[in-house]
Design brief:
alpha/beta; Rossmann fold; 4 domains; eleven-stranded mixed beta sheet; 23 helices; 14 strands; elongated
Length: 609
Amino acid sequence: MAILAVLTETDLPRRVVALAWQIAQARREGLTILRAGLGGTESESVEVPLTPVEGEKPDALIGAIRSVVNEALAATERAPETPALILRTIAHADRLKGVLAFVRQLDPSLMVVSWQPDPRGAEVPLAYQLFEHAPCDVMAVGGAEATQIRRVLVPTSGGPNAEVALRLGAAIAHARQGTLTAMHVEPEAMEDGEAVATQVLRRALARAGVEPSPDRVILRPVVAPDVRAAIHDAARAHDLVLLGASGQGLVSRMLFGALPERVATGFEGAQVAVVRHATPWAARVRDRVENALALNVPQMSREDRVELFEKLQNGSRWGFDFMVLIALSSSIAALGLVQSSGAVVIGAMLVAPLMTPLLGSGLALLQGNQVLLRNAVRAIVLGFLLALSLGAVIGLLSPVKVLTPELAARGGPNLLDLGVAFLSGAAAAYAYARPHLVAALPGVAIAAALVPPIATTGISLAWGEFANARGAALLFGTNVVAIVLGSAAVWYSAGIRGRRNERLWARRTLAALVLVVAALALPLGSYLYSLVRRDVSGFGDAVGARVTAAGYRLVATTRSEGVIEVLVRGATPAGPALARDLAAQARERLGEPVTVRLVTQLTSEATSD
């Protein structure tokens, strides 16, 4: 393992190198100094000797690094171990990508960066980007330069970042024969505040694996009205202040609301460093997935994203046009379902406008856009209620009240319908993301089948077919959730992202939708299982041939709970021998023992003279 100190073209090496060198000594690890510049793909690595070598070409950076290290060594009372010191120079068109690639290759135990806010605010400095995205532990260094650290102060209120700061501070203090002061501040209004602060400190040290010691590790519980002022007062008596950049607790809320400015300013006489623990494995996997998508999937340009957002925003609003299209499509679908006309139902699918707000919902959840999501959900809910009402009215007015095959087909959704809906959402989103593929949207609308299940629900409720209504409503809910998730997956692959720290509610909503899909998989899987159990494919043809040979006409073959019922028509009852023959054929074809129930419809014919 090694400590990595990252310098940019504008960094002064003294502050970051001095601290990184002392940490490397404390941990007995090597130190690699990375100079990251803009340009091509040049890469160079040299070992830096602590004393000039005869014939060495002068280099300002190497000279500055050597000066800092030698000053730190001269200030040390005992002879320390000298870590290996490597200077690596890289040049990359995108410095962040170049440094992160090097970090993944080196796998350092700690990265040290120097924080210097850009006075013009023209772009986010590299140090801040690394602090946010580096997969390893990261330290951002500010404040005064400290070539000799003996007194380390760690304000803590718990959390994983505080643990990293405590372990790091303990290692430095031990190596320098100095002291680590663990500090926790409780407000004056807290009853027994000092006892509470002491308990917090003991638990934090225990989690970090640091043993309290009167000489080396000091507990400093403080009760004060101003947390930040109390820490600043304590910092004056220390060489280094380590702050865990945790988002938990009062200290973090007071100090780390604006990390860049807080790191570089505010402390007098002490060097300040903010520590962040290594990125969780889930975040690292996410970053790798995003990088792979960026390399292999064409990403949408800014202009395309703006145009897409405008189309979905306009199409996701509930308005007169949306209402008219919903009314027309649901009426057409209801009439087609009642007369079992597949062509009419397909026409209703093409008119239905519900796909657009579903795609808008997927985009809103990725962006964390509450306004777009609110408009889309409103359009979906009102559209559903209108289509359901019209379906019920047409069902009540219809002179035909027979559950047609088109109606029955939508009353028994299964797990395959979930896959169809997800892929339909993905296809629609992909067509929207690629304007030249807009001709594919009508086909997607047919596959998605959003309005017919609602109309089926209304008609079935009007006729008292509650089981069929329940199945059709389940089909619509399945389509909605799967289309939203399918479209979100495509938007994500195409490069649409939201600010991670501002879309927690959106991530939770997406996670909830995934759980809903998992819950829907149970009834949908049950429907599919029942279809499989009723399937007599591979046996029906053999039954028809055998029944015909026996002098009967096959009417229907159904299967339920291990029983195959064969309905035949003839002038005399079919005997047990035919039933046994059919049972033997069923066992041979289906590979399992089944019971065959043979039912005969008796017919008689007479001709008048």
